[in-house]
Write a structure and sequence with these properties.
Number of strands: 12
Largest sheet: 6 strands, antiparallel
Number of domains: 1
Length: 314
């Protein structure tokens, strides 16, 4: 009996090395590999989206910086002597006199320094806004695209109707008295918009006197969903955005220094019949209002502009 048991122990079958994994082990391995792969793909997708957003914001900031430099050039050219705008047609050496538009009541430049310092509609800040509005009205599409090809006849050399001001400024417009109040979004310390019941919180900005600040909103540039539209070259990573500047003055600087607030965001189209895609524009800045879960404005900036004529009066 003992000999038989001993033989059974010595001759028991050994496990085969090439037996392989069980079905359960293979299933677990597949699940682990799939989870790792899905996590990697998700991380790559998030990284791509974040990179696109970062590039858009960088391009939007560059867009704003270009306009700031243009405003500084315009301000430096505002001399007391004549208020004459050079059209840039060097071959004909033509200039267009815009004194009547800027200062319709008094064409004597040196008397500009003696205008009332208490009237925001008669100071250099208002003149500067009138001048920038005039330039927007004169803005035209180029004849050719950046590659040298002709633009469609519907655009080439035509006035850019989408660049405009709110309010519509004329020679007799009281620039800041006639315009809208300046509405801003409430933000936290990290410059994130604060929401209440999915609606962004806003407030009306105040000037140094504690009165509601008035602002002129100007559409500076647009993108476009239409490929043949010259505005499409302004798209930020294949998406249509709009650049606006909101211009205001303050009694503390005698209404001469212009405060310029920039926003780049999704354009508001009041003609869109679909309320979902149209959104709202309750703050009248020509941009789609912010919504919880949907960011419209991708870039902000602020600068101050002092017309050169102000220094000539001091």
């Amino acid at each position: 009996m003992n000999k038989l048991l001993f033989k059974l122990i010595l001759h028991r079958s050994k496990p085969k090395n090439n037996q392989g994994f069980s079905l359960f082990e293979v299933t677990i391995s597949i699940l682990i590999s799939s989870a790792f792969l899905m996590g990697t793909l998700q991380a790559m997708t998030i990284n791509a989206v974040m990179q696109i957003k970062s590039e858009r914001k960088a391009k939007a900031n560059f867009w704003i910086q270009q306009d700031i430099e243009q405003l500084q050039a315009i301000a430096s050219a505002m001399k007391l002597d004549n208020y004459i705008l050079d059209t840039g047609e060097e071959e004909n050496d033509q200039e267009r006199d815009i004194r009547e538009l800027l200062n319709s009541d008094d064409l004597n430049g040196r008397r500009l320094c003696r205008r009332s310092k208490k009237k925001k509609d008669e100071r250099f800040g208002a003149d500067f806004v009138k001048l920038t509005d005039y330039l927007l009205q004169e803005d035209r599409y180029p004849e050719k695209d950046p590659e040298g090809e002709d633009y469609p006849a519907a655009y080439a050399g035509k006035s850019i109707q989408a660049t405009k001001s709110n309010i519509n400024i004329t020679a007799n417009t009281k620039v800041f008295s006639d315009t809208i109040e300046f509405t801003q979004y409430e933000m936290d310390e990290d410059r994130n918009i604060i929401y209440t019941d999915d609606v962004p919180k806003t407030y009306t900005a105040k000037d140094s006197n504690g009165n509601n600040k008035k602002v002129v909103v100007q559409i500076v540039a647009n993108g476009s969903e239409e490929e043949d539209n010259p505005d499409a070259q302004n798209n930020l990573i294949n998406k249509n955005y709009r650049l606006v500047r909101l211009m205001s003055v303050d009694s503390q600087t005698k209404y001469d220094l212009v405060q310029v607030y920039y926003r780049v965001g999704e354009p508001y189209d009041p003609t869109d019949p679909n309320p979902t895609t149209r959104g709202k524009d309750d703050n009248n800045d020509f941009l789609r209002d912010e919504e919880s879960g949907r960011r419209s404005i991708i870039s902000y900036n602020y600068t101050e502009i002092m017309p050169a004529a102000v220094n000539e009066c001091s």
